[in-house]
Amino acid sequence: MGRAPGRVNLIGEHTDYNAGLCLPLALSYATTVRATVRVDRAVSVRSAQVDEPWTGTLDDVGPGQVEGWASYAVGVLWALRESGWEVPGVDLEVDSTVPMGAGLSSSAALECAVAVAVADLLDHDLTPELRRTLVEACRRAESEVAGAPTGGLDQTVSLLASPGSALLIDFRDGSTRDVPLGWDDAGLRLLVVDTRVSHALVDGGYAARRADCEAATAALGLPSLREATLADLDRVEHPRERGRARHVVTENARVEEAVVAIGELDWTRLGTLMTASHVSLRDDFEVSCHELDLVVDTALQAGALGARMTGGGFGGSAIALVPAERADAVARAVDLAFVAAGLGAVHHLDAVPSGPAGIVA
Ligand code: ADP
Ligand code: MG
């Protein structure tokens, strides 16, 4: 059976499509896929989470051919065939503990679990090189078959993470590096709060942010915002585009600082950087929302060292770095704040830095 984790991004948001830096970690929540080989070219996929099985053949799994959730799963078969693999007809059975649509990347967990299950069927060893092939196939499945443009952050961490570490990803050259997280020994935990809201116009908002970043990059005459400095930004005339670029430039610097802080076990500094990331996403990038701000403000008041929205924004999840003995109090404070604000209940999850996709019994 293939198994692949969801992820949460510790810091480095909206930097992936700007050739920037991010620092996600794989979660203990994961998706499993049991793949059974067939003698014909038929494909079927069913999920314990969604009561809509899909059936077709290997000729029906490409771009424009599959609607709905199944596109994330069977799109991987198409992408692996595109990369030259002889993928047979298969029956796929999906199950998951990753909440869907919470910004914890249930989509990449599904793709990557299919990919490793198929790799196993074909007796491929999960070498580092093979994992990178799978990252690209899963990214293509999501972009080209499911139709959700993605830079590959989610697939990269799901397939390449190391237990106990975050993964520093540099989107300028695609390189990755493990960043061991020692906050356990300091008595800290990373809490995830799924706000269970997803505000309308998410896709439009995302596309508009990318367009603003491209406009700022063009105004500066640089290959990407990775090359920009704070001083450069005065040359971006449009105030909104300047704010977007300022977020990206300062966020890349915060990721670099966060890696240093983690190395020095300076958790106060890491917390401060997380909160600064949130403020930048809220004010300069304008992708936060009332619910995410409420989680962050409440967690900080209740004793978190730092807190921020995580993922694309407009809803989804926030994270908070908290002393273990304050974890319950922080969670309860968030619950009460949501009741007081007349909002629906949140979901609390724990972010335990976990290992990558693999084969399980
Ligand atoms: P996220 O990746 O943050 O959870 P997305 O919108 O990118 O949010 O992906 C969520 C979608 O992925 C779901 O709406 C569904 O189509 C698909 N999906 C993920 N996990 C499963 C699953 N276990 N069963 C069926 N579909 C799933
Ligand atoms: Mg996703």
UniProtKB/TrEMBL annotation:
Q: Which organism is it from?
A: Nocardioides psychrotolerans
Please list the residue ranges annotated as the GHMP kinase C-terminal domain. 260-335
The root-end lineage is: Bacteria, Bacillati, Actinomycetota, Actinomycetes, Propionibacteriales
Q: Which residues form the Galactokinase N-terminal domain?
A: 3-33
Task: Domain (GHMP kinase N-terminal): give its ranges.
Answer: 72-160
Instruction: List its EC numbers.
Output: 2.7.1.6
One GO term describing the cellular component: cytosol
Q: Which family does it belong to?
A: Belongs to the GHMP kinase family. GalK subfamily.
- Entry GO MF terms: ATP binding; galactokinase activity; metal ion binding
InterPro entries with a match to the protein in the record: Galactokinase, Galactokinase_CS, GalKase_N, GHMP_kinase_C_dom, GHMP_kinase_C_sf, GHMP_kinase_N_dom, GHMP_knse_ATP-bd_CS, Mevalonate/galactokinase
Indicate what this protein is called per its UniProt record. Answer: Galactokinase
Q: Which UniProt keywords apply?
A: ATP-binding, Carbohydrate metabolism, Galactose metabolism, Kinase, Magnesium, Metal-binding, Nucleotide-binding, Transferase
Gene Ontology biological process terms, A to Z = galactose metabolic process
